[in-house]
Amino acid sequence: MTFTLASLKGFLMGLIIFILANLLAAHLLSDCGLPAVLGKDFCADDIVRAGFPLIFFEEGGFAYRIIFNQPYLLLDILIGLGFSIICGFIASLRFNQHEKE
Fold this sequence. Notes:
Elements (H helix, E strand, L loop, with lengths): L2 H27 L4 H4 L9 E4 L6 E4 L4 E4 L1 H31 L1
Antiparallel strand pairs: 1-2, 2-3
């Protein structure tokens, strides 16, 4: 395995972890879970929330409203990419340590 392949694997693992954390947060923060986020729920007055660590989307409720915060979405994307880059860097460092042995 080369240095760049180790970095790529670390980056992709970090990206997958961040996407799964977003899905878990959407499931736990929404009233009817992940089906509500996907639009497949049957709850009457549920509130759908999406975003981790910042909630950038909220929809529903008794007095129906939609809130979409674009700066929070962009910040979430930057945080996810930063986390993935750090994971790729750590994977490449571990690869270098393994090469030296």
